[in-house]
Amino acid sequence: MRAAYHLGMAFTIDPDLPPALAPLAWLIGRWEGAGVVGYPTMESVNYGQEIECTHDGRPFLMWQSRTWLLDDDGNQVRPLATELGFWRPLPDNEVEFLLTHPTGIIEMYYGRTSPAKIEIQTDSVVRSPHAKEYNAATRLYGLVGGNLMYAMDMAAVGQPLQSHLSAELKRVG
């Protein structure tokens, strides 16, 4: 493993990392933290989250995220959301992010990477006949001071695209 640096924060890069994954290498690892979720159709609440982003030597990253509702003291109350997916780097700093949710929704995001930053928007959303209305989203991910920070805007349940959630997670593995 070799050390990499961004804004003075060290993290290790697997020497077997395919070169195509270099723009996404900073995502690899296990992350934990908290954020805020809200929308016009729901009350804003705090949530906890853990993300695991891995690779197996092929030129894509595997992504698993779990969130749970937090009480006022920061204790886990109940599960909220789970997503499983893949990051696929493309030429010219383009990227795809494919996500599945157990609520009957599949998303395909498309966007661009720049050093320690990813900006993506949905190219398509597929919903089962029993899933809630969900039409579009944007996501912004960045490595800031060694932490994974992100924000998501969403268009759903009759509402236009607007802020839905944001979080800050620390690398724990």
Structural description of this entry:
This protein has no helices and 12 strands. It is mostly beta strands. Strand 10 (134-144) and strand 11 form a beta hairpin. It starts with a strand and ends with a strand. Mean pLDDT is 93; it is low at 1-9.
Element layout with pairings:
Blueprint: E1 2-6, E2 9-13, E3 29-39, E4 42-54, E5 61-70, E6 76-90, E7 94-101, E8 105-114, E9 117-127, E10 134-144, E11 147-156, E12 162-171
Antiparallel strand pairs: 1-2, 3-4, 3-12, 4-5, 5-6, 6-7, 7-8, 8-9, 9-10, 10-11, 11-12
Summarize the structure.
The protein has 173 residues and is an all-beta fold. Strand 6 and strand 7 form a beta hairpin. The protein is built from no helices and 12 strands.
Structural class: mainly beta
Number of strands: 12
> Radius of gyration, Cα only, in angstroms?
16 Å
The major beta sheet can be summarized as: 10 strands, antiparallel, barrel
Oligomer: single chain
The string of secondary-structure elements, in order, is: EEEEEEEEEEEE
Please give the share of residues in helix. under 10%
Tell me the span between the first and last alpha carbons.
14 Å
Form type: globular
